[in-house]
Amino acid sequence: MGRAFTLIELIVVVLIVTILAGLIAPRVLDSARRQAEAEAESVARVISAAAQKDALSPRTVGVSYDGESHRLEVVVLEYVDDRAVWRADPLVEPAELGACELAAATADGAPLDGRGWLLAFPPSQARATLSLLVYSSGAERGWQIDLEPEATAARLAPAGGQRAITPVASRAIDLDDAGRGDEPW
Q1: Confidence class of residue 162 from pLDDT cuts 50, 70 and 90?
Q2: Residue 73: CB partners within 8 Å, gap ≥ 6?
Q3: What is the pLDDT of residues 169-184, one digit of tens each?
Q4: CATH assignment of the domain containing 75
């Protein structure tokens, strides 16, 4: 007669499998959130790099988004044979969105086209306030990335489950509008 497993051996095996599943399942389920958060941080790094290049370089810098490839990159305006050409900056790694989508983008509050856009930062002009909302359906959460005109680093903030951009309050205060035009500041 063949040897069979005892009830205690079966209980021990089920207990070990249950413990392993309890340890592994949270990591597997949390991986979508971690990947989405890493992509949001990557978008913030790209925008921050563009702002730093804008502050330090006399050249026109921009941020470009391609809706088909879901790619956000820093671009630089170059002149080739008297033609203006935007080229990807080879020193800044682009952000590739896979686990996330660019749910919304605005420049000074005006919506940007989700199929693709280019926002230029000319050196002689004030930079627009850029706000992006990166959303992950798998993680069921979003992140808002804001770059204010005077900033050299983008601000990344959790947006929870919202799918609309929260406007950035300007830090500039017009003393005349505040009724303090004659007071020293």
Answers
A1: confident
A2: 46, 63, 64, 88, 89, 92, 94, 95
A3: 644 555 555 555 566 6
A4: 3.55.40.10
